[in-house]
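Box S2. Input/output pair 1.
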Amino acid sequence: VQVVESGGGLVQPGGSLRLSCAASGVTFSTLGLGWYHQAPGKERELLATLNRSGGDTYVSDSVRERLTVSRDNAKNTSVLQIKNFKPEDRGMYYCRVGLSWGQGTQVTVSA
């Protein structure tokens, strides 16, 4: 099983972020997935989850107005988008597919 996040990098305050998660070695459409954020020096927190079909999603209240999440079972991928990026959004972003985690992708905020 391999889960790989991509799309991290430098984001300006007020800008937008688009992250992707790709899974292989699993029957993607049978697994729920989640996106998580870990700010520097803080614990990992749940941002959003999607059920197997993507028809049922949960988004944390802390980002509800700024975050969208989706999945494409035909491509074994998920996309996380955050708009109006804030300094506290910096850190590592992780994707979990079933019980398998990716290594994360780093997001920093420009001055």
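Box S3. Input/output pair 2.
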Amino acid sequence: VQLVESGGGVVRPGGSLRLSCVASGFDFKSATISWVRRAPGKGPERVSRLSPSGGATYSTDSVKGRFAISRDDAKSTVYLQMNSLKPEDTAVYYCTAGHYWGQGTQVTVTS
């Protein structure tokens, strides 16, 4: 199983980023995929989850209306579109499937 995230970077408040997670080694189309973030000095926080049927949930009120999760089964890829970014969104963002985690991608929001 492999989950490879990309798309992180440094952005100013109000900016946007799109994270990607390319999956391999398991039945992607049948899997629920989540994005989890870990901010400096804090524990992991699940941001969003997407079921195989496409049903999305956003676990954190602070991202509702700003973040959108989607998937492309043909590419075995899950995306997290992040708009109106805030400094408190700064974290390492991980793609997860069950107990499998990717290596993470750093998102830094700073002026």
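Caption for Box S3: The chain is about 0% helix and 50% strand. Residues 46 and 95 are 10 Å apart (CA to CA).
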